[in-house]
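Summary of Year 1 activities. Much of the first year was spent building the evaluation harness for sequence design. The harness presents a backbone, in tokenized form, and records the residue chosen at every position. We chose the following record to illustrate the format because it has been used consistently in internal testing since the harness was completed.
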């Protein structure tokens, strides 16, 4: 053997030894495949663990299922999703929607709620739970890639069901070219803390949707804040009363947040909104409900109870416009239009372009509306602008509320009041006038709703 050949063989052996050492070191540090071939349970790490190996990263896709069964990560994730199913309710309406989509008929899906439904916390609109659920539903149950499934998102930041019921016709039906939804997802479980009706407008919205002539499916979705708070205890009795499917994100994620197998920074983008991974969880929880229902035998449909659980005063609320039938309307000194009204997060659409603003020089005449109704709701603009002032709200000549449009923390957002809530319909007159000391101030009425 010559000298050159001997050197080459020595170098080859040394290279092989180095490679084996490197591979051994990599294998020894792996948390997914320990040396003994057994997987260590890490779904409930200690509080000191930096990040559980059972929790996917926000952009991580589920691991492929190995031939010997699902991974622990998949088991952990699937258990979390399954825990979100609070109730599958009566399945007749949702099965009808799934069958309609599978047959190739046009299906209309809508979501209504607050900023989480609008998409806050998602880096891109397509990542928000509402849009990604509609896409997943269309791909799984629709025809031709889901081309027959249509979707509108009526989520709006900082708004409760009190305002949702006012804008239902405009933002859910009119926005969908006049089509009533076949499937409506209602998400106000973290927005209704300031609802002055304590759930009555929420029930009114649900009853309004359920009583449509196309008999849509309605899903109640209960999102959750980082504080672990939501209002599902208020709304669960309503879902039970109407035998509706209910999905609780709180039931899914809070136990994992508490045992540290799900990190807050992974699920939440801030104190209130889910991050991209949180939106993905919400989408998967909704899809789990739909797949569960799709595998069931169809039940006999249940009728919508004529008697409301709380109140039927908000069953048929309509947003008032200048040409609304049966309504007499005079703008008075509220004759200007406010252009500084907040817009939607992703679409940048002005939410209430047709409004009634009192300008500093618009006089003393009150805004006045007369209509036969059971309830009256009014949404006004909150702002920190110093030029805004105080108004008195009168019903049938009596002052029922005094409110100030200038308020710390306002961001040109709507705030909704219920100023009339009666058992029987009668003719009523609503007036809004600038209060003493605010005659030269501004105030914007964003919307008025009446329940007939």
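For this record, the design step produced the sequence shown next.
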């Amino acid at each position: 053997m010559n000298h050159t050949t001997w050197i080459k063989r020595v170098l080859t052996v040394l290279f092989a030894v180095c490679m084996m050492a490197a591979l051994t070191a990599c294998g020894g540090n792996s948390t997914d495949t320990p040396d003994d071939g057994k997987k260590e349970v890490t779904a409930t790490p200690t509080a000191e663990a930096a990040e559980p190996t059972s929790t996917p990263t926000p952009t991580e896709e589920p691991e492929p299922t190995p031939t010997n069964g699902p991974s622990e990560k998949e088991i952990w994730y699937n258990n979390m999703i399954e825990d979100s199913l609070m109730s599958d309710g009566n399945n007749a309406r949702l099965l009808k929607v799934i069958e309609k989509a599978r047959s190739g008929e046009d299906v209309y899906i809508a979501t209504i709620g607050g900023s989480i439904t609008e998409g806050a916390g998602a880096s891109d609109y397509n990542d928000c739970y509402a849009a990604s659920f509609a896409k997943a539903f269309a791909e799984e149950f629709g025809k031709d890639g889901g081309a027959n499934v249509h979707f509108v998102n009526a989520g709006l930041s900082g708004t409760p069901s009190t305002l949702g019921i006012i804008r239902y016709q405009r933002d859910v039906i009119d926005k969908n070219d006049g089509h009533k939804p076949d499937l409506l997802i209602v998400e106000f479980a973290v927005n209704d803390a300031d609802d002055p009706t304590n759930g009555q407008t929420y029930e009114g919205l649900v009853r309004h949707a359920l009583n449509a002539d196309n008999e849509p499916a309605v899903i109640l979705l209960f999102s959750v804040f980082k504080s672990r708070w939501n209002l599902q205890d208020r709304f669960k009795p309503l879902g039970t009363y109407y035998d509706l499917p209910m999905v609780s994100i709180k039931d899914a994620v809070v136990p994992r947040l508490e045992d540290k197998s799900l990190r807050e920074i992974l699920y939440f983008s801030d104190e209130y909104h889910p991050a991209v991974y949180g939106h993905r969880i919400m989408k998967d929880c909704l899809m789990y409900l739909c797949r569960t229902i799709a595998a069931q035998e169809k039940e006999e449909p249940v009728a919508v109870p004529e008697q409301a659980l709380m109140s039927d005063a908000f069953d048929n609320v309509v947003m008032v416009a200048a040409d609304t039938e049966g309504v007499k309307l005079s703008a008075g000194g509220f004759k200007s239009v406010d252009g500084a009204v907040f817009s939607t997060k992703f679409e940048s659409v002005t939410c209430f372009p047709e409004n009634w603003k009192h300008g500093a020089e618009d006089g003393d005449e009150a805004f006045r509306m007369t209509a036969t109704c059971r309830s009256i709701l009014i949404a006004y603009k909150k702002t920190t602008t110093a030029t805004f002032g105080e108004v008195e709200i009168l019903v049938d000549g009596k002052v029922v509320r005094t409110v100030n449009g200038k308020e710390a923390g306002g961001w040109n957002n709507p705030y909704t009041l219920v100023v009339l809530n009666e058992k029987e319909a009668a003719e009523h007159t609503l007036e809004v006038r600038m209060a003493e000391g605010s005659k030269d101030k501004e105030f914007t009425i964003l919307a008025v709703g009446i329940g007939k």
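Residues 1-61 have pLDDT under 50 and may be disordered. Quantitative recovery figures across the full test set are reported in Table 2.
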